[in-house]
Design goal:
Layout: H1 3-39, H2 44-74
Helix pairs in contact: 1-2
Length: about 80
């Protein structure tokens, strides 16, 4: 296989896997946060703060995957 083909496949796999896992995590965080708010509405502000923080960390993983994919592609 040509080196460029391997780089393209590695880039595609990196960004695909690196975005699927955080997307699933964000979905699970949202689902569980909404369930918690439904059970305990008076704690919604605390739950929402924790949800937003957890979603930001999960999104950071996707951004790291994007950076790694770009490094693979252009280096």
């Amino acid at each position: 296989m040509d080196a460029e083909v391997v780089k393209n496949i590695a880039t595609a796999l990196t960004i695909a896997i690196g975005t699927m896992i955080p997307a699933l995590a964000i979905g699970l965080i949202g689902k569980e946060g909404l369930k918690a708010m439904g059970r305990n509405p008076e704690a919604s502000s605390k739950i929402q703060t924790g949800m937003i923080l957890a979603i930001a960390f999960a999104e950071a993983v996707a951004i790291y995957a994007l950076v790694v994919a770009l490094v693979i592609k252009f280096v």
